[in-house]
Design a protein that fits this description.
Length: 76
């Protein structure tokens, strides 16, 4: 995704970036960032969050994208 700085983000950091992106209306980018903590926790690479904490915001973001898609279809 860009330049390698040698700094590794923890799950909680990816989670916060994802939530910030979603709150600013960048749903797809937010979902991508919210997928990262889930992957990190599942791989036991990062224990800064629990798996359950990563799933709810991700489901809500997917629901928002679906609702937006449905709205777009009916606006046509």
């Amino acid at each position: 995704m860009g330049e390698d700085t040698g700094i590794t983000l923890e799950s909680v950091h990816c989670y916060e970036i994802g939530n910030a992106a979603i709150s600013m209306g960048y749903l797809q980018v937010g979902i991508e960032w919210l997928e990262l903590p889930k992957e990190k926790v599942k791989s036991c690479y990062d224990a800064t969050m629990k798996l359950e904490e990563t799933e709810v915001p991700l489901e809500l973001a997917h629901d928002m994208v679906f609702a937006q898609t449905v709205d777009d279809v009916y606006k046509r």
